Structures are given as structure tokens and as C-alpha cells.
Amino acid sequence: MDMMLLLLTIGIFTGFFVQTITGFAGALIALPFLLLVMPLSDAIAYLSIFYFISTPIHVYKEWKYIDKPLLKKIALSSFIGLIVGIVVLTYGKPMILKKALGIFIILFVLNSLRTKKEIQLISKMKFILGFLGGFFSGVFSTGGPLYVVLVNNETSDVKTLRATMFGILGLVTLMRIPVLAFEGILTLNQLCNALYVLPFFILALVLGKKVYLKLNDALLKKIMLGLLFLSGIMLLIKN
């Protein structure tokens, strides 16, 4: 196994292992590993492949809890943001995007450490957050935190929040795959490489579920935030 496949395997395994435990942040964890051996566009393509595999399973299991009206409200804005994000990904400068991703991760961690307060969103904010969620999903595959803010202000039910997040991420993934293919970012070679990683991806989902049932939630959050912060620093200082 060459270095590219090795780090791809480590990144996908680590990212989806963490995501299975915490419910999100898989791309934020995986990207720093992937970006060591490939351009940002290729990393997004690989992440999209594995999101495409995992999200339909979650959506099928959680369908009855998903806030479907909310999905309809943000579908258009998310799609517009996704298109803009992928255009930026295709024609933007990778180094600038890496630095921007590092800053985004660090800001996300710092915001997560703040005392939680209710954020009252006006109706127009749904479109804005939907657009930004789609944009970051297109550029970095990391729109999850923005969607969490949006959905959290629409429901107080944990099951609905979790299920709707699966629904949103699944919707964004279905939108992203054909656009990436059309832009030439998603290739047959990447699909072939993904087959080598698939067993480790499945193992990450299985082990993540088992660990989730055993570990303390507070400890898991600290581990996740620590990993994210280190990832952000690494992206900022690495050329």
C-alpha cells in the first residue's frame, strides 16, 4: 500500500469513526490526513463517496423522525451554496482554501467552548445558513456545524435534531455527487481506490458504534474538540 492509500485509509477510518461516535465532524477530522497526500478537490471527492455510502443507511433508519418541511425550506439555498462552493473548489487557490479551512476549524472549536445560548433565528437566516452550509459542504465538505445551528433552533427534540441532520447531510451528498462528476472532480480512479478503503470504512462504523455505547459523552466531546483544534493548527502552519 503506497503512502496515498495509507493516509486515505487512516483519514477515512478516523473521520468516520469519530463521526459515528459524535454524530458529525467526520470531514473535519479526515481532511488533514487526506490533504497531506492529495489536492483539496480530490479529498472532497473521496469524502463524498463515503458520505454517499453512509448517509442513505442513516436516513432510512431515521426517516420518521426527520423534519421534512425544514428540509424542503433549505434545499434550494443549500443547492445554490453547494454549486458556488464547488466552483470555488474547482477554480480557487488550494493554499488559500487550506488556510481558510484551518481558520474555520479553529473558530468552530472556540465557538463550541462557549457557554451555550439559544440563538433566535429570523426566517431569512434559514436561507443564509442553508446557503453557507451548502457552500462549506461544496468547498470543504464541512457544512455540518452550520446545519446543526440551524436545526437546533427549529426543534428541541434530540431525536428530531439527530435525524434531520442525517437527512440534510444525505440531501447535500446526493446533490454534490453529480456536480462533482460533472466538473470532473470525481473520477473512476477515485472510485477504484475507495474500494480498497471500504473494509476499513465499514470497520470504523462498527467500532464507532460500540465505542459510543461505552464512553462518557463529556470525554468524547473533549477528545473531538482537541483533535479538531490540532487539525486546524496543522492546516494553518503546513505549506
Secondary structure blueprint with pairings:
Elements: H1 3-22, H2 26-34, H3 40-62, H4 68-91, H5 94-113, H6 123-139, H7 144-152, H8 158-182, H9 188-212, H10 217-237
Helix pairs in contact: 1-2, 1-9, 2-3, 2-10, 3-8, 3-9, 4-6, 4-8, 5-10, 6-7, 7-8
Helix/strand order: HHHHHHHHHH
The number of helical elements comes to: 10
Portion in beta strands: under 5%
Low-confidence stretches: none
Secondary structure: number of strands: 0
**Structural domains: how many:** 1
Quick one: biggest sheet? none
Mean pLDDT: 82
Task: Compute the separation of the termini in Å.
Answer: 25 Å
Which structural class do you get from the secondary structure elements? Answer: mainly alpha
Helix content: over 70%
Shape: globular
Over the alpha carbons, how many angstroms does the gyration radius reach?
17 Å
Observed structural traits:
single chain; 239 residues; mainly alpha; 10 helices
Brief sketch in words of this structure:
The protein has 239 residues and is mainly alpha-helical. It has helices at residues 3-22, 26-34, 40-62, 68-91, 94-113, 123-139, 144-152, 158-182, 188-212, 217-237.
Describe this structure in words.
- By secondary structure, the protein is mostly helical.
- It has one domain (3-237).
- The protein is built from ten helices and no strands.
- It has helices spanning 3-22, 26-34, 40-62, 68-91, 94-113, 123-139, 144-152, 158-182, 188-212, 217-237.
- Helix 2 (26-34) packs antiparallel against helix 3 (40-62), helix 2 (26-34) packs parallel to helix 10 and helix 7 (144-152) packs antiparallel against helix 8 (158-182).
- The longest helix has 25 residues, at 158-182.
- The protein is globular.
- The model has no long low-confidence stretch (mean pLDDT 82).
